[in-house]
Design goal:
Radius of gyration: 37 Å
Shape: elongated
CATH superfamily of one domain: P-loop containing nucleotide triphosphate hydrolases
Number of helices: 24
Distance between the termini: 79 Å
């Protein structure tokens, strides 16, 4: 099968996409913001052959040489990141050449202008190519030689290039020092992670990995493959000619199979392409996929590495986390090899700052100076960015404060060093059911692969889907806790299906309830062999993502375990799992590392900047006090009659940007024990008013008070409100009972506060309550949703069209439930188009039209005190009753099809009734002839 070997030239749309994605995978801490190269650095371009037979390639290279007349110097080979080329590392090469090194850059096979197919750092191909480059250096007089065919050489690279440095040192003992950055230990565990197993050992970021299983890292894998699968220039020329475009003749030997393969696989080798396609379609780790990934992983050959190793890893990296560097450090140090570890604030999800970049670049240069030139300066220490508490509270993309570096003498737990210190943080929480939705959607959003900086700009926000997660929380911390590494915890999990895909994460929750997810990192868990009995769950050891984060005093640690994450492949079958802490006194074991704090560069300027910021903050604070004092009083004031007036609208208006005013100057109040009917035609503003009441949208003007407190989004007082608005929202694959339990569990409140049996009695479904909701009628769904709104017996109950789908007996029963509910001192708001039901159910009415209130009062006040009345008397008494009524001033009476009707014309009903009774006439019925519907239509017509 032929392979196109031309320069990759993506189509315009693909080119724009790759312009965004390339820096994410190619960029490394050493390869940006390099200093201007010395003017006397010379370059030589060459195409170097490597491989043999069908695997033979030509590598496009550039050699960077120090100034003329310099003595022979050690060499450094710089490898680029995935999707890059030799041009990606040119600036760094010039900087190293300026330090006196002979630097060789190259485009790996399948990239840039090199030929061949991408083998994913396969030892048979890319690693053999590296040895071929070292052979070239062994022939040069300007490179220091340690022996015949043995140049003194170091290798550095980031991500794809970092793995090549590790593998090269394992397979070619001529390599004297390496500096791999943000790279992998096991490509298998990186792309199919499952952080399940025994709690880790002595090192800070030791991460458990389940054998033979994992959760497929779908989005990151797709980005990787997309960069290598872009059609090459030759293929695009071929396709253009075949289609008759650009006046290019179509060749006669176009092979459809070759074209299809080239379009789907791009410049990947057939073996790698097949592995990706199998993973993307099946999302399971098969032995065939594992064989390809394991071959490209340093994990299996670390015991061969004798070259001193500087491992640089980023704390903002959802592709290759700190645990990958931890595993590399343990494996290499076990041989007695010199290992230093540096963590920095950046990674595949966020670039390093210019200051960090300069420091890391110098760190690599010092490492090569020490091990290629024999100079002092580089040590086998451990460095990490320590939060100061002065920065942001854990936003994604940056360590808090991030202005100081902590250095320890050794990476804890390596080769006999003291193990990392761990602190136990006690967690609490009950057994909680969680749902895996059908199709795996909607899915939780934690971080967008490669776009951590964008997530940081949005405040580090995440999205957890209600019902899909269980949470366990610590008490507020008495002192700040700096977590440096991977925390561990034990859970108890059960599932009817015996397996579960879960995602564990550790949130930082501030006193105001704001939750942030450090670095946006999650720990995927692929669980099998689970107990199906929630009463006898399976214990599961979990390693959380390795982070560097300061949890301030007064904050809490929240462990969240969810069923979905959009970055991963998810089960498509719906399922319900039960999650709890393994023991009543379960603790979260968090690693902590002590060391000396290194002064940051420009400390004096930093303090001046801080002083300026403090001064600005004080000015802003004063301005806020002066300008916002009146508004703050309005927003924070608690109305003294709040308990007697559960709901109050005061001049509420909701206008939209297009000029449409949905609600205008709406004012009314509802008192305790009332059942208020909210009436109005379509478009009257009823639903908008209810959505503002529930805190779902904000009013443009005015105030809504619930029990005296402003009803703002997220206001704690809204916990006293139960609502059913705009659809049932039930999960169709669960039973009615499971829906009720899951809804209450999602509130995080104790199960005994749910009053579940009372709510189930309201539903009135009997045995049907345990059938899947998808088999319910509309009326049955409606009853479960109303019961759900009544869980916890809220003090204020808001129902939108509660009788939709109910038959007359059910409507009658619902009427009695609402009346009796209000009789307990609670308050009910009902919006409905069934005016007769409002008339018989509600005590008070607010009528709206075109966003405005047009009437308010009791039902009787709206209908009218006088007017017509319908009487029920015996047939023998009818004529006498007519005579008595017409004896009253202005009253007329007569027979109608409905019965005896009297037009009172202002005479009070009580006076008319008393006259009949005084005349000895038995009255069985005495009701207003004018219905609420008549009054409503009249009012709306008038409006």
């Amino acid at each position: 099968m032929r392979r196109s070997r031309g320069l990759v030239r993506p189509r315009s749309g693909a080119r724009r996409a790759l312009a965004v994605l390339l820096p994410l995978l190619v960029a490394a801490p050493l390869l940006v913001a390099a200093p201007a190269a010395a003017a006397d650095v010379r370059t030589e371009d060459a195409r170097i052959p490597a491989g043999s037979g069908a695997d033979a390639v030509e590598l496009d290279t550039t050699l960077f040489l120090p100034a003329d007349g310099e003595p022979p110097a050690p060499a450094v080979v710089l490898a680029h990141g995935f999707g890059g080329s030799k041009d990606s590392v040119a600036d760094e090469a010039r900087a190293l050449a300026g330090r006196g090194y002979v630097v060789l850059t190259f485009s790996a096979r399948g990239f840039g202008r090199s030929t061949g197919s991408i083998g994913l750092d396969d030892p048979r191909y890319e690693v053999a190519d590296l040895s071929a480059l070292i052979d070239v250096l062994a022939e040069r007089d300007d490179v220091v030689q340690d022996g015949d065919g043995d140049p003194r050489v170091g290798v550095a690279g980031a991500s794809y290039g970092g793995a090549l440095a590790l593998l090269g040192a394992a397979y070619d003992q001529r390599i004297d020092a390496i500096a791999p950055q943000i790279t992998w230990n096991s490509l298998t565990s990186a792309l199919f992670p499952s952080q399940v197993g025994e709690t880790p050992g002595a090192t800070p970021a030791d991460t458990a990995q389940a054998a033979g299983a994992g959760v497929y890292k779908r989005l990151w894998s797709g980005l990787f493959f997309g960069l290598g699968a872009a059609p090459s220039g030759d293929l695009l020329d071929l396709l253009g000619g075949a289609a008759g475009r650009d006046d290019r003749p179509a060749p006669a030997d176009v092979d459809v199979e070759d074209v299809t393969s080239a379009l789907t696989c791009g410049r990947f080798s057939a073996e790698v392409c097949a592995a990706y396609e199998a993973a993307a379609s099946g999302a399971e780790l098969t032995p065939e996929i594992a064989a390809v990934l394991d071959r490209a992983s340093p994990a299996g050959v670390l015991d061969r590495i004798t070259a001193p190793t500087l491992l640089i890893q980023g704390t903002q990296d959802s592709l290759f986390g700190l645990g990958q560097a931890d595993a590399n450090a343990r494996g290499i140090a076990a041989n007695g090899t010199d290992v230093a570890v540096v963590w920095y604030a950046g990674g595949h999800d966020a670039p390093a700052s210019d200051q960090d970049t300069a420091a890391l670049r110098n760190r690599v240069g010092d490492w090569f100076d020490a091990h290629l030139r024999g100079r002092d300066g580089a040590t086998s220490s451990f460095e990490f960015p320590a939060p100061t508490g002065l920065g942001t509270a854990g936003t994604v993309g940056r360590v808090q404060g991030g202005t100081r570096t902590v250095t320890a003498e050794r990476y804890p737990g390596l080769d006999g060093a003291d193990p990392v210190r761990r602190t136990g943080i006690e967690l609490s929480g009950t057994v909680q059911p969680v749902v895996n939705p059908a199709g795996g959607t909607p899915a939780a959003l934690t971080t967008v692969p490669g776009l951590g900086a964008l997530t940081a700009a949005l405040g580090g926000s995440t999205l957890e889907i209600p019902g899909q997660s269980a949470s366990f929380e610590s008490a507020p911390l008495q002192d700040a806790v700096e977590v440096v590494g991977a925390a561990t915890v034990e859970l108890a999990v059960s599932s009817a299906g015996g397996s579960a895909t879960l995602f564990a994460k550790l949130y930082d929750v501030g006193p105001d309830g704001t939750a942030t997810l450090p670095a946006g990192l999650v720990a995927p868990l692929a669980l099998t062999g689970l107990s199906a009995d929630p009463a006898a769950p399976t214990r599961v050891g979990v390693t959380l993502p390795a982070i560097v984060h300061r949890f301030e005093a007064g904050h809490t640690m929240r462990l969240v375990v969810s069923t979905t994450d959009q970055g991963f492949a998810l089960p498509v079958e719906p399922a319900v799992h039960s999650i709890a802490l393994a023991d009543p006194t379960t603790v979260l074991d968090v690693p902590q590392v002590e060391g000396r704090t290194e002064a940051a560069g420009g400390a004096t300027r930093w303090w001046l900047l801080l002083a300026g910021l403090v001064a600005l903050a004080l000015l802003g604070w004063g301005a806020a006090l002066l300008i916002g004092r009146r508004r703050d009083r309005q927003l924070s004031a608690v109305q003294p009659d709040g308990e007697d007036v559960p709901l109050r609208f005061e001049g509420v208006t909701k206008a939209y940007k297009d000029g449409f005013v949905a609600v205008r100057d709406l004012s009314f109040e509802v008192r305790r024990g009332q059942v208020l009917g909210l009436l109005g035609p379509n478009g009257a503003g009823k639903t908008t008013s209810l959505r503002m009441l529930m805190g779902l949208i904000r009013p443009t003007e005015g105030r809504i008070s619930v029990f005296g407190h402003a009803a703002r989004p997220g206001a704690p007082v809204l916990s006293r409100l139960g609502s059913f608005v705009e659809g049932t929202g039930l999960l169709p694959h669960l039973s009615g009972r499971e829906n009720l339990r899951l809804y209450w569990a999602a509130t995080g409140r104790p199960a005994e506060d749910a009053h579940m049996e009372e709510a189930i009695e309201v539903a009135g479904l009997g045995a049907a309550l345990d059938r899947p909701v998808r088999r319910y009628s509309q009326g049955m769904r409606q009853r479960v949703a109303i019961a759900q709104a009544m869980l916890g017996l809220p003090d204020l109950l808001v129902l939108d069209e509660p009788t939709n789908g109910l038959d007359p007996p059910q409507i009658h029963a619902m009427r009695e439930v609402l009346r009796s509910y209000a009789a307990t001192g609670r308050t009910v708001i009902v919006s409905s188009h069934l005016l007769s039901e409002i008339e018989q159910t509600c005590s008070h009415v607010v009528v709206m039209a075109k966003g405005q209130k047009i009437a308010q009062g009791t039902v009787e006040e709206i209908v009218g005190a006088g007017g017509a009345v319908l009487l029920g008397v015996a047939e023998a008494d009818t004529d006498r009753a007519i005579a008595v009524l017409e004896g009253l001033p202005g009253v007329t009476a007569g027979r109608t099809d409905d019965g005896l009707v009297a037009e009172l014309e202002g005479v009070p009903r009580a006076e008319a009734l008393r006259a009949l009774v005084d005349a000895g006439i038995a009255v069985d019925q005495f009701t207003p002839r004018r219905r609420l519907e008549d009054a409503f239509l009249a009012l709306v017509g008038e409006s």
